[in-house]
Amino acid sequence: MGLVQFGSYRFDADLIAFDKDGTLFDFGASLRAPFLAGVERLVANFAGQSIVRAELYRTLGYDSATGSFDARGPFATSTNVAIGYALVTVLFQHTGPEQDWSGCERLVREEFAPLFEGSRHLEATTGLEALFSSLQDCGVKIAVISNDDASHTESALASFDIAPYVDFTAGGDGPYRHKPAPDALLAAAEKLSVSLSRTVVVGDAATDLEMGRAAGAGLRVGVLTGASSGAVLEQSADLVLESIGEISVLAEPAGQAKCAPDRSSDRPGGR
């Protein structure tokens, strides 16, 4: 249990559950380049490349004019399985008689998916090891709950030397229903024997915050390092930060904690 500062607010936290992409790692800086490269590798197999490319962008939720991802779209919010099905469906709709559904699945598996393996493309949003070690030192448990595959999540944690600080991980291909369902957060709290009222959810998407709401988390914190705007996050968050770089551990006794903002006029953007 520890007194943790989230921007200008303090909260007695036993557990902080972080999202991965868009929260620990900047979404655009980390994923835009491999996404664009993967699309180009796919469309290279088709005639009418501009049409297929535009349809892939539209379906996955990418705006080529602004270089941004739709915060509601599948690439920003869904599991790798769902993203794969969306890609295969678009490719199949534009394929000729020489290509069947299984051939489109093979293309996605061989040309698109490998670009997101490993961690070389990831850009951390703050000094992750320093943050995680400080949380561990004051007794705060850490969970990482992602809609990405568990193997990708674990690889990223290991590559950034933060795996030893993480007490619970869950991926979109695991045994729990994926976000916004509360299953993984409920499992983390049960496994780590912590109260949900002293649990914080930190994420860049409404699905992260809705998971926290459904589970009864004590504090929901949105961050602006993903695809969502502050206006969108404020609909589900207790407060919104620029990044997890605004999270720090305080030395004061836990009893001096300032209550988290309620969902009224003292919340940033509150109503």
Give the helix tally: 10
CATH topology description of the largest domain: Rossmann fold
Through-space gap between termini: 31 Å
Strand content: 15-25%
Structural class, by secondary structure, is alpha/beta
Taking all residues together, what is the mean pLDDT? Answer: 91
| CATH class descriptor of the largest domain | Alpha Beta
Which outline best applies? elongated
Taking pLDDT < 50 over at least 5 consecutive residues as the criterion, the unreliable ranges are 253-271
User: What's the arrangement of strands in the largest beta sheet?
Assistant: 7-6-3-8-9-10
How much helix, percentage-wise, in residues? 25-40%
| Sequence of secondary-structure elements | EEEHHEEHHHHEHEHEHEHEE
Corresponding CATH superfamily of the largest domain: HAD superfamily/HAD-like
CATH architecture of the largest domain: 3-Layer(aba) Sandwich
The value of Rg in angstroms is 19 Å
How many strand units? 11
Biggest pleated-sheet summary = 6 strands, parallel
